[in-house]
Design goal:
The protein has a single domain, classed as Four Helix Bundle (Hemerythrin (Met), subunit A). Helices cover 54% and strands 5% of the residues. This is DinB family protein.
Length: 174
């Protein structure tokens, strides 16, 4: 077992800064490029992260802590952001995500009182019984997955432009 809550928080608290540093102030051509039909761009990913802050991570952690396996987590719509945010800028989304994440981490600190809490179980609608430790580990891996996704999508804008160097650029060959 490698999970350590303090190490998890190190990543969770940095994600908004990483994304803001990468995306804030970029032209739309960077933030709305994608990998083709039915794929997400950076704008969509930030919207998805916002939805996760509102309806996934902390709400599920609260259920695990307060109700255990007596109540199944509500289903999380992983695509709801695709129908929202049309009037917002990437900067507005990044600011909203930063604020929500700060609030989530503050709430997380008030929910977990001891290492024993990390072994508490909840009931996922698809996977069945899951541990709080697994939920928290997934939150971290989810952040890193989407940071990687944004970098990959942006890099692929230049797939043809890099010429023969494409052979050496793993990010373009995924």
């Amino acid at each position: 077992m490698k999970f350590q809550i303090d190490e998890a928080i190190e990543i969770l608290e940095r994600t908004p800064t990483v994304l803001s540093n990468l995306l804030f102030g970029l032209s739309n051509s960077w933030t709305v490029c994608d990998e083709g039909e039915a794929t997400w761009n950076a704008f969509d990913v930030i919207g998805h992260l916002i939805e996760g802050e509102k309806y996934n991570w902390i709400p599920r952690i609260e259920i695990i802590i307060s109700k255990g396996e007596t109540e199944t987590f509500p289903v999380f719509d992983r695509f709801s952001q695709l129908h929202q945010n049309t009037e917002k800028t990437i900067e507005q989304l990044l600011n909203e995500f930063t604020e929500l994440r700060m609030n989530s981490l503050e709430r997380l600190g008030s929910l977990i009182n001891s290492p024993i809490d990390l072994g508490k179980m909840g009931l996922h609608p698809e996977f069945g019984s899951v541990k709080l430790r697994e939920q928290l580990s997934t939150w971290v891996a989810h952040d890193l997955d989407h940071i990687s996704q944004i970098a990959r999508v942006m890099a692929k804008r230049y797939t043809e432009d890099v010429g023969p160097w494409k052979a050496y650029l793993r990010i373009l060959n995924q």
